[in-house]
Amino acid sequence: MNENAVSETEAMTYLPVKADLHAEIERDLQDPAFRAQWEAIADEFAALDLLLEARRRVGLTQAQVAERMGVKQSALARIETSLTSHRHAPSLATLRKYAAALGCRIEIRLAPR
Question: Is 107 part of any domain?
Fold first, then answer.
């Protein structure tokens, strides 16, 4: 075997890469342009986090939620990713169906900046 060749077992293992994403974000937030962009999309990421956390909390897959909503799994994936893609925002009716599929309800609050 070639001295540079990697055994099949070695090829299947990996070493984790240590990353401190919070520290990287905190560093990047020092840049005013980055901070402005971050703040512009923060509510979208917060909404996505709420959806994904609720789905995780009840222990359902996208396919299971999609079935409960009466849509295809790919449509549900588009709903979840649409919150950060700026292509299409889900309607309140769609978000209500999503919440109902999880046994939840929607609450909307306005908070001072």
Answer: no
For 70-93, the pLDDT digits (tens) are 999 999 998 888 877 767 788 899
The whole domain housing 42 covers: 19-101
Distance of CA 12 to CAs 2, 8, 61, 110, 112, Å? 18, 6, 27, 49, 51
Q: Contact at 8 Å (CB) between 113 and 84?
A: no
Q: Which residue has the tokens 């990047």?
A: 28
Q: Where are the alpha helices (DSSP H) in the chain?
A: 8-12, 21-28, 32-58, 62-69, 73-85, 92-101
Number of domains in the chain: 1
- pLDDT for 34-66, tens place per residue? 999 888 888 888 888 899 999 999 999 999 999
Q: What CATH number is given to the structural domain containing 59?
A: 1.10.260.40
Q: Can you say whether the dihedral through the CA atoms of 38, 41, 43, 44 is positive or negative?
A: negative
Chain CA centroid to CA 63, Å: 16
